[in-house]
Amino acid sequence: MSPRNHLLTYTSGIALAAGLALVGLTNQAQAGAFAFSELDITQFEVTTGGHIATNGTDVTGVSFSDGFSGSATLPGAATANLSTTGSDSQCTGNCAGITPSVFSAAPPIGNFSAASTLLSGSPIAGTINGVVETTPAHAQTAAQTQFTGTGNASAGAQLTLTAGLSFTAAASQRFDLTFHGLSQALAGIDFAGINAGSNSTWSVLLTDNTKNKRVFAWTPQGVNGSGGVPLGADAAGASAGTFCINLAANGCQVFADDVSLQQQAGQSLPIVGTTDTGVQQGNFDIAATLLGGDTYTLNITHQSQDSLVSVPEPSTLMALGAGLLGLGFVSRRRRTRS
């Protein structure tokens, strides 16, 4: 799988107006905050013998299902709920400035909360659920929230994509699950009185339904498995967490785990500023020898979320600055494939 280069340059500027001002005696938070998280999975495919697996040849009885759950919330605005299937983008508040770049951090546009999803393609070729699928699969989620001004902020966006792929192996042979992954989380505050946080997570579980045993559960953490690295045993077939058993025993090995897809950023009192994980991207490959005639299910969980929460200030708090000038974003993205 060819690597993809992805550049996201992010800068934030924080300034206070000249002069002195007294924050009134109030228990509300004078807030200026943002949070953004993105998780982008591309070139997601199941391969065997050096080619993408095809329904009716390498595997049979393929079925694919997916679903979304998610919403965006903002004080004083209606909650925006995502559709349960397909690609969708929902926003509440001042949303004009976030389109069409719903998967990039928006410039400072005021109070809003947004959640976006994209899903296309299939990891297995051929006719699936009566549709001739294009490959490979692509799944992307992003959540972002901004809040400025005086008020009680309890805002955020969260979304979860779950996908299930069921199939029967036509013969006992090695299958690889390969993809390119990109994730980023950032959060910032420029005035005491609000906490900001964001995170993204991704995991996959492969189960042998015929044997009623899990083959592997994988949460990529950036432990590069060049040459094949077993992640531990699932002796009882029911343990939690990340594991895969030896390839020779019809288990699995990790051949590429370049970066962690579990990203988290947070900014909270008493420190103002920005926390940015930076763009984390790399290639991933996990292999398993599947048994001919056995039926398998591949379950994927893909999540992005963020939140802004006010922290009430003492009623006697006095602060410098006439107000918030804004949060400065410059977001530029370049994606190339070689």
- Oligomer class: single chain
Tally of alpha and pi helices: 0
Largest sheet composition: 9 strands, antiparallel
> Unreliable stretches, pLDDT < 50, 5 or more residues?
1-31, 226-241, 314-338
Helix content: under 10%
Give the structural class.
mainly beta
The count of domains is: 1
Order of helix and strand elements from N to C terminus: EEEEEEEEEEEEEEEEEEEEE
Strand content: over 45%
> What global shape is seen?
elongated
- Count the strands? 21
Termini separation: 9 Å
Question: In terms of topology, how is this protein built?
Answer:
Layout: E1 4-9, E2 29-48, E3 51-52, E4 59-73, E5 80-81, E6 88-93, E7 112-120, E8 126-128, E9 131-133, E10 137-151, E11 154-169, E12 173-189, E13 194-208, E14 213-218, E15 243-244, E16 252-257, E17 263-267, E18 273-276, E19 280-290, E20 295-310, E21 332-337
Antiparallel strand pairs: 1-21, 2-3, 2-10, 2-12, 4-5, 4-11, 6-7, 7-10, 8-9, 11-20, 12-18, 12-19, 13-14, 13-17, 13-20, 14-15, 16-19
How does this model look, in words?
Strands 2, 3, 6, 7, 10, 12, 16, 18 and 19 form a 9-stranded antiparallel beta sheet that branches. The N terminus and C terminus are likely disordered. The protein is elongated, with a radius of gyration of 23 Å. By secondary structure, it is mainly β. It has one domain. It contains no helices and 21 strands. Helix content is 0%, strand content 55%.
